[in-house]
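Annex B.
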Amino acid sequence: CAPTGLYVFTEVTLKVHLSDASTQQPLLGATIQLFANHTSVATETSSADGNTYLRFPFRLGTPLVVTATRQGYVPNSVPWTPSKLPVFSSISLDLLPERAATLMVYEDVVEIKSSLQGLRGQPSIHFLRRALSLPADTSFANLTALLTVASSPSRIQHFPHLQILGSNSTGTEKKFELTPVAAISVHLLASDGAELQVNGPITFSVPLPVDSSLKENDHIPAWRFDPRLGK
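FAM171 N-terminal domain-containing protein: predicted C-alpha cells.
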C-alpha cells in the first residue's frame, strides 16, 4: 500500500526569535539547535535582529526540541511538535542573563554563592578544592563565578524545558512533563571564558519557595541539562 503522510519527510522552515529576558532586546550570536530524539538535526546562529531560520526534514508526529545557548546567558529550550504540517511556524525564546557570584576559596573547600550579600538562606555551591584542576598559568584570582537561581514559575520558564521518557501501564514509552521547584545555573570560568570542570561531588544549597510544600531534608530528584543532547 502507498505510504501515508505520517511517514513522509517534508522540508520545513522554523523561524526562531531570541531576546534578552531582562531587556527584551534581540540577541545576536546565540546558537540555536533543533533536536530529534536527542540528535541535533539543524544548527544556526541568530542575527542582529535576533532571528534565525532552521530548515530541516520533518515527519509529522516527530517530537522536536529547540535549544538556545549563548555565553553569559542561561540556556533555554522548548518542545516543538505541531499536530499538523505547518505552512509556516515561528517561536520565541528569552535568554536570562547569568548573574555574577561571589567566589570564596578556602584551604579545603571552594564556595560559590549569590553576590547579594546579607540575604538569609541565599543559594550556594560547595565542592572540595582538590576537585578543581586549574589550567596552566591560571590562579584562583583569574576565575569568574556565575550563579543564577530561579524558584518562581516566571523565572523557571527561562531555564531548559524539563521532560523525561517513561513507561505507562501498557508498557509503551511516553513523555512526562515535569514541574521543577527550583532551577540553578552555575559556571566557573577561566580568564579566557573557558568553563572549568569539577571532578568530584558538588553540594547545592537552595532556599525553598515560599509556597512550596517541601520541607528541609526532603529528597527530590535532580536533572542536569546537556546541551549536546538537548535534554
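Helices lie at 153-156. The radius of gyration is 20 Å. Further annotation is deferred to the next reporting cycle.
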